[in-house]
Amino acid sequence: MFSRKIKLHINHEVSSLIVCIILNLVICLVNLVFSFVSNSKSLLGDSIDAFGDVITYIIAIYAIHKIATGKNVDESFWLGIVQMILSCLILEEIIRDSFFTKETDVHFELMLYISLISLLVNLVCVILLYLTRKKDSNIKAA
């Protein structure tokens, strides 16, 4: 059905997405742990955002697989649903914490270092996906 060149390109795209999934899972866990250590809601939001990226990449792999088997798929609807759910989780945590939790000290220096690491991981993923994007709308969306 597909030429060897297209199959290699699809494998390269999926490999890039898997690397991005692993990187984002690691940074998600790091952000989650350090959000509690540093009392930072910002890092908690970053953790949930990284988890949303993982879900996005998994859906992109699913879409690539469906397209490779000749089936049409509209993953954008599901990506929107996932992002809305994750946004509601962040909003709920911020509201709950604002009204029902006493003030705590935030460790700004630790929060800054972890945020910079997250930024670097996201930059690596953007570069990796940019290099493999070609004409695939799933890679562009991810």
- The structural domain count equals 1
Strand content: under 5%
Radius of gyration: 18 Å
Please give the count of helices. 5
Number of strands: 0
pLDDT < 50 runs, ≥5 residues: none
Name the quaternary structure: single chain
Order of helices and strands: HHHHH
Could you give a short description of this structure?
By secondary structure, the protein is an all-alpha fold. 82% of the residues lie in helices and 0% in strands. The model has no long low-confidence stretch (mean pLDDT 78).
Reconstruct the topology from this structure:
Layout: H1 4-37, H2 41-68, H3 76-100, H4 108-131, H5 137-141
Helix pairs in contact: 1-2, 1-4, 2-3
Task: Characterise the protein shown here.
The mean pLDDT is 78. The chain has one domain (4-141). It starts with a helix and ends with a helix. It is flat and about 55 Å long. 82% of the residues lie in helices and 0% in strands. The protein has helices spanning 4-37, 41-68, 76-100, 108-131, 137-141.
Features:
142 residues, mainly alpha, 5 helices, flat
